[in-house]
Amino acid sequence: MSLAGSTCWTIGRGDDNNFVLPDRWISRNHAMLQRMETGEFYLIDLGSRNGSFVGGRRVTVPVTLKNSDHLTFGQTELEFYCPDTDMRPDLSADGDGDSQDFTATAMLHVRRLISILVVDIRNFTGMTRQLDEKILSEAIGTWFRKSGDIIREYGSWVDKYIGDAIMAVWIHGEETVSHEEMLQIARALSDLHKMTSQLHEQYPLPFPVRVGAGLNTGYAMVGNTGTGDRPDYTALGDTVNAAFRLESSTKQLGLDIALGETAYQYLSATYAPDLFRPHIVHLKGYDAPTKTYAGTFEELDEFLSTASKPKT
Hints:
By secondary structure, the chain is of the alpha+beta class. Helices cover 26% and strands 29% of the residues. The protein has helices at residues 124-130, 133-153, 179-197, 238-253, 261-268, 297-306, and strands at 8-12, 19-20, 31-35, 41-45, 52-54, 57-58, 63-64, 70-73, 76-79, 108-121, 157-162, 165-171, 211-224, 233-236, 257-260, 277-281, 290-295. Strands 10, 11, 12, 13, 14, 15, 16 and 17 form an eight-stranded mixed β-sheet that branches. A hairpin with a 2-residue loop joins β8 (70-73) and β9. The longest helix has 21 residues, at 133-153. The termini are far apart.
């Protein structure tokens, strides 16, 4: 496969890909390669069922490829060959007039079914007024680090650190989400809550820390919105915006977690307990009222303890 004549290439079993691999273990749209203006190549898995691997390690976030890296898609093994390590364009003042174009955003977006989890620290402003800045910085730094560890353990990455909140993205298959995938997200959320509630045991905080969360599942555009030297892979669209609004709605409802309808359906469809109760909320920026399923972390943990029991 020659990576020439473009900056973006898709890999998969479907005929609409740049590189079609006739391997039944490969998803229709499996992975994506992107060449940045800096000359670096990135590999991004597109929520494939069986995963993409670099050097035997599964790709969960966009990774930079190096010459001679071994790539595995399904049962197909490839070697990435790019011996020219000095591929960066000349951005000096002596370069030609086109050099300024290299700072433009390298846009590649793919529409994918995703889940967005937004987790926010409750009463963070009150905490900042009562804590020494050094202790606050260490405590929040620990929370961010441990949150990232938990999210990675459950198959995703922290897409954004936003003040006192994080946003994580799970990329699913082409048309549906498995119950196990949604359970993984629910377990990640439960672990985030437990980790946060223990933070005051490590630092002299004025009160136990709590979090609120919004979880939404739907289609969004996933791709790079950064520049060549600062790639930023993220998800964009209403699915993302609604996840943030759902998290905010938990404050109105006096509850811990708010799920979009689709996320709730995928999570609760096969299992016995009714997870959360329905509520009608008015999300900021939305004209029509929105239905959400909201509840507490205690209810989530009770659900997870019995989720392995299918409905009869």
